[in-house]
Amino acid sequence: MHTFTGIPASRGIVIGPVHVLRWEVPEVRHRIISDEAVPDEIARLHTAIGRAKDRLREVRGRAEKHAGDEEAAIFDVQASMLEDSELIGGVESLIRQNIGAEKAFDLVMLEWRQHFAKHTHAMLRERVSDLVDLHIRVLSVLLDLPDHDPVDLPPGANAILITHDLTPSLTVQLDRNAIAAIATDEGTRASHVAILARSLGLPAVVGLRDAVGRLHGHELAILDGSSGLLIVDPTEEHLTAYRDRALREQADEIELGQLATAEPMTLDGVRMTLRANVDLPDEAEQGAQSGAEGVGLMRTEFLVVGRATMPDEEEQYREYSRVVKAFDGHPVVIRTFDLGGDKLPVGGYPAEANPFLGWRAIRMCLDEPELFKTQLRALLRAALHGDVRIMLPLIVSVAEVRQARALLNEAAAELDARGVDYRHDIPLGVMVETPAAVIVADTLVNDVSFFSVGTNDLVQYTLAVDRGNANLASRYTPLHPAVLRLIQRTVEIGHQAGLEVAVCGEMASQPVMAFALIGLGVRELSVAPRSVPLVKRIIRGVSAEIAREAAAAAVAADTAQAAHDALAERLYSAFGDAPFLRHGLPVVVDGHSFESSAGP
Amino acid sequence: MIEREVQIVNRDGMHARPAAQIVKTAAKFQCEITLVRDDTEVNGKSIMGVMMLAAAFGSTITLRADGPDEEQAVEALAAIVANKFGES
Fold it and tell me: How many angstroms away from the CA of B49 is the closest CA of chain A?
């Protein structure tokens, strides 16, 4: 038995035969050729390219079968690249300098790959993996290596695909009937193969470093996507333990799936509202399908980050409308730009020494009224398509809210002047994520329609802990009584004034925290789409009254650990030995995970 | 030699697939074809070149053709661009 340790990329357990696929750039030796040999070498290059294009046609056909016409079209692009006069010309010119065809091609491809990888435009960086595919394909022909990329496995093989990295060629040929899991030598949690595996629902482990070299193929293995392990030739004990775990996780998945249409109501009849956090318009459909009743937080930074120009009103209007329409009448709360000046494509603002306390979010927007009003106009127009609500981030004073409202009115007047239609009474609310906002919450209530607590930042500012600092990971906890008391105060003041008080930080998806929030009187939670079923299950399994008792004890506790224990004790007695509570969904903030440390 | 300015009107701009369409169409013509955006000029028959232009939605490029069939070439290319490369 041998255990390979990698990075968990997509959760799930698969027990099956390993299928090793060698598809990586081969080593190329430098070879000098004579002047007389040059014409033949150039001919050799062209023959190889011709054969590579033949193989591309085969791959395209297979891709159409397994993935679809659109995905298969990428191979037309690859074929065009092989016809590119600049690329071929570059290789020929090196051959004329007496370099063998393989080395010449290798050098030219390395240069193009570097060129594309460093480009400012994402659309070019995305093409690097296509160049890698071509690099491998043509060199394989030139070096007479066997053509490994057909992934033809019998259906039901339940195989674990082991490969160096998942290039487009491999991805679109993935036969989902035969491949049940993916393991790669390269990759990180955020790389293409991990994202793809998660979206396909295939368990995956990446970053194994040397699996391809050390495996023959057909060995029985266990892939544990949640722990990042590949256990080859496992013992009987391991097999039994994992088979049991796989069954339990399957049962869990089915149960969670059935929750999509269930009502988020506690055992004692308290009806919660569960919404989704959306980072990109692409996530909107997923959010709508998760059973969320709207969007509690739509972030808008994607429109700005990494861009060469600020998005204009039309583009913003299109993107906001897309999300609003996906949620078909449910409330969609959109947060105005929450970033620092240094992230803006315009203005040349420098980075700050202390960005979390810096010129960003509402401060930046109020100082850049034209920029802000462009966003506001787009929001006012998008609001015609559904129940849109505007949320202002990083508020510390009602003065900021009033200034923002004045600009909102100006934006509306500008639309009137152009004769463009918009929603006239759009609700305006604030994120409560600074101690100041909580302390003076009573001064905010008359100028806003709702509060939304941003736990991530609130914990940071209240406990004076940088959430990105690995040394402080254990000190960063939303269960600190200081944070719980601030949330409690916000809920009390908000509810007294008749305002909705939501919590939209990802911590709401952590079981113990969700329980605390219910107990503190929060009735609206917004979490990532994939967390919606889990939180719904927590809501349906607890009594709000018991949660209230637990939260009261937690608020009165003198340490975060004591607060946690008061909550965990009552939560675990409600659910018994439930695996989902114990494994929990670790709450990961900027790469550092916060996990419940106590258990039953 | 003739030139025509066109605007990129499909949402995702001139990414890989539109670039491939341009190049495939350009290959049918004898004339030399150049695409220009701001200060950058690229060979319209080279997919690497066209992709490097990275022409996003809303940007303006100049189609330049020089040779016997230059008029048909510019017409054909302008038509694909205006047709949003068959996308939205």
Answer: 8
